[in-house]
UniProtKB/TrEMBL annotation:
Species whose genome carries this gene: Streptomyces showdoensis
Gene Ontology CC entries for this record: plasma membrane
Listed name of the protein: Uncharacterized protein
Lineage of origin: Bacteria, Bacillati, Actinomycetota, Actinomycetes, Kitasatosporales
Keyword Membrane: yes
Transmembrane segments: 21-40, 83-106, 127-151, 163-186, 193-216, 243-265
GO terms for MF: ABC-type transporter activity
Protein biosynthesis among keywords: no
Keywords for this protein: Membrane, Transmembrane, Transmembrane helix
Amino acid sequence: MNTLPPLLRLALHRRRRMLTAVLVGMVAFEALIVVVTNTIPPEQLFSGGRSPPSAYRAFSGSSGDVSIASYPGLLGAGLTHPFWIALQLTVIGSLAAAAVAADVESGTIELVMVRPVTRSRLLAERAAALLLASAAVTAAATLTVAAGVALSPKIHAQVGLGGVFAAGVMGYAFTLCVTGPALAVSAAVGRRALVLGAVVAIGAVGFAVNFVALAWEPAAPLRYLSPFHYYTPGDALARGAVLWPRVAVLAGAGVAGLLAAQVLLRRRDLTR
C-alpha cells in the first residue's frame, strides 16, 4: 500500500476497520445465501406450485425472465438483497462524503490544499480510493458465490461460473452508478449529511421505485429511473453473460457523475 498515492492511501487507511468489517459481513452473508440456496429447493419456496408475484423480480435481480423460485433467482436475490445494498452504500457513502464535503465541513480543506494539491488530484485520488474499496466489496461477494456454486453440483448444473462473474461485473457497474453522483454531491456541498442522503436516495429509494414499478402497472415507466432496472444479476446468472447494454447505462451514469464532480469542484469556493 505504501506505493499508492498519498491521498488515496490515507483515505483507505482511515477507514480500514470499516472496510474490514464490511468485507467480512459480505462474505458471511453471501455464504449464507449459498447455503440456503443449496439446502432449500427453489420450488419449495412457494406452495401450491404458484408462480411468484411479478414484483418479486425486484428481489431476484431480473427484468422478467428469471423467477426468484430458481437457482439463478435465489443467488440473484443475494446480490440485490437490502443487506448487500446496505453494505455497498455504507462504503460509497463513507468515502464519498470524505472526498470533499467532510474536509469543507470540518474546516480542514485548506490544510489539505496547501501542500500544494490541485483540486483535480484531490478528487482523483479520493475517487480512486472509493472505486478500489467498492471493487473489493464486490469481489468478496462474487468470489464467495463462485466458491459456493463450484462446490454444489446441483447449483452448478444450472448456474455456471461465467454467470457468477458476469453478475459481479454488473454489481461493480451498479456501484459506479452510485459513486459518480455521490462524488458530484460531495464536490458541490459542504455537508456530509447531504452526501449520505444522496447515496441513500440513489440506492435505497431506487430499489423501492423499481419494486413499485414492477408491482403496480401504472407506475411501470418509473422503473427506467432506478438503477435496479439496469442492475439485473439474476439475468446474468441465468444467461451466463454480462448484459452489456445495461452495464453501459450504469457505467455511463457513474462516469457522468465523476465528470460533473470535476467541474463542480473547480468552480466552487472551498471555504464554505
